[in-house]
Design a protein that fits this description.
five-stranded mixed beta sheet; seven-stranded mixed beta sheet; alpha/beta; GMP Synthetase, Chain A, domain 3; 14 helices; Luciferase, domain 3; single chain
Length: 502
């Protein structure tokens, strides 16, 4: 039976095996640290008491500026139990980004995972945060002006995941309890996830990949997590070799880093005696990388297609299937996809390319308090993804490009308009254009072309400092190219195709 709310997944595990270890954690010294369901429940209960004391109400948004740790999971559970919405933000975001997300969410209160993250601690200091009753957390003062959501959405929505649109302004994807718990079951079943499994939990739980595929699917199955705050190839290889990891998921760029580290040290295989399932998502998969991963682990590399607006994956390759292509596999239960001619809105024949439209159990009810942005991407109940794909004769989906200008960098979506807005805010820059230049393993470099104000000279160190304040590191351009004149149309639009490599 599908759980009604996301905390029900945890409560079921708690009732069944309260003293079972759920989280295996980094140890500060020799030995290993662990946390049982009962111990995590105690932390969640303490946070629920604190939230109620601070008059957080059903429908309020509680923002977590976080890196992975038990405290963040406990906050997600506490919010679910009392009907508030958790809103995760990666602590490595720039100050201006964090402030923008808090404003967009109209957050009642913000928490910071100061016990595990120097980045969260810096944001906490800037926000005049005070210690929480739960060790390892700090919290901001309560915003009395925050308005709680009411009506049907207040009950349906579990969390907000932030994504940037092509306009460059952040949008809050409203994720429903039904959608997240449904995907938790689908994801667990697709991998035959069970109580004796241990998933590698380094993916940020502020992202749907970490929240849905790793955390919620593991709770649905009663599986354990080996938790890390971030990804380090040498640490990951040690964990795979020594700590019983059975499931490894991540963006293609992660696997490229992992294999690069292995190959640099002269060994073409990874030691992972317990590993049985490997999955790449959140970005396009290159065939050469796929073959390298499969050779290193002697396992099929599974692949899928999903997005925050759907609370997870809609297509996944079948467990154990070895495909000699980079398809995203077949549709999962509850998901519907159409391949549409973007000019006419009509379906294209099988084997032809078109825009991917989707709907189903996991589809968001919209972007939080952004009717205009929601209407832009929705048509007759279908979400227009902006991705270009085709369905093969066997029903497998291939994602072949993007209508949008989105750049994939280290598994994260980066939107040029967001970077251009920051560049254009620098005093010596008149206009800018940002494009992605493809590199190995499906990753892309960010290249910024800038046209200066007449007579100005670019102070690149000052510009880099400006970018660092407003943009997370993965969004910052690797190259900044000064041009006398950007190529323009007669109507004043930059001709970005002329900036792309031949």
């Amino acid at each position: 039976m599908t759980a009604a709310r996301i905390h029900d997944l945890f409560d079921r595990c708690l009732r069944r095996s309260p003293d079972r270890v759920f989280l295996h954690l980094p140890a500060n010294g020799p030995g290993a640290a662990a946390m049982t369901y009962a111990q995590l429940d105690g932390m969640a209960r303490a946070l629920e008491v604190e939230l109620r004391r601070e008059r957080v109400r059903p429908g309020d948004r509680v923002m977590a500026v976080a890196e992975n740790c038990p405290q963040h999971i406990a906050l997600i559970l506490a919010c679910s139990r009392m009907g508030a919405w958790s809103c995760g933000v990666n602590a490595r975001m720039a100050p201006g980004e964090v402030d923008g997300f808090a404003a967009k969410a109209d957050a009642r209160i913000c928490y910071f995972t100061t016990g595990v993250s120097e980045y969260a601690a810096a944001h906490a200091d800037r926000s005049c945060a005070m210690p929480s009753t739960v060790a390892g957390l700090s919290r901001s003062p309560v915003r009395s002006e925050a308005i709680p959501e009411s009506g049907p959405l207040a009950e349906r929505v579990a969390a907000i995941i932030f994504t940037s649109g092509t306009s460059g302004s952040p949008k809050g994807v409203m994720m429903t309890h039904e959608g997240v718990t449904h995907f938790a079951r689908v994801s667990a079943q697709s991998r035959a996830l069970a109580e004796d499994d241990r998933s590698y939990a380094y993916l940020p739980m502020t992202h749907i990949f970490g929240l849905g595929t790793v955390l919620m699917a593991s709770l649905h199955a009663g599986a354990a997590l080996l938790m890390r705050t971030s990804f380090d190839p040498s640490v990951a290889l040690n964990d795979l070799a020594r700590h019983g990891v059975t499931q490894l998921q991540g963006p293609p760029a992660l696997f490229a880093r992992l294999l690069g580290h292995v190959e640099q040290h002269g060994d073409m295989r990874c030691t992972a005696p317990d590993l049985r399932y490997v999955y790449a998502g959140a970005g396009p998969l290159d065939m050469s990388l796929k073959r390298r991963v499969e050779a290193a682990f002697d396992l099929p590399l599974h692949h899928g297609y999903g997005l925050s607006e759907y609370a997870g994956s809609l297509y996944m390759t079948r467990r154990g299937e070895r495909r000699d292509d980079t398809s995203c596999g077949h549709a999962v239960e509850g998901a519907e996809v159409r391949i549409v001619d973007p000019a006419t809105g009509s379906d294209v024949p099988v084997g032809q390319r078109g825009e991917i439209w989707l709907r189903g159990v996991g589809l968001m009810p919209g972007y939080f308090r952004d009717v205009g942005a929601s209407c832009t991407v929705m048509r007759d109940g279908w979400y227009m993804s902006g991705d270009i794909g085709e369905v093969g004769r066997d029903g497998a989906l291939f994602v072949v490009g993007r209508l949008k200008e989105m750049i994939i960098r280290s598994g994260f979506n980066v939107y040029p308009a967001e970077i251009e807005a920051v560049l254009n805010g620098f005093e010596s820059i008149e206009r800018s254009a940002v494009v992605g230049h493809g590199v190995a393993d499906g990753n892309e470099d960010i290249v910024a072309y800038v046209q200066l104000v007449p007579g100005a000279v670019l102070d690149e160190p000052a510009l880099r400092a400006h970018l660092a304040h407003w943009l997370a590191p993965y969004k910052q351009p690797g190259q900044i190219v000064v041009m006398k004149d950007l190529p323009m149309t007669a109507t004043g639009k930059v001709l970005k195709r002329r900036l792309l490599p031949a």
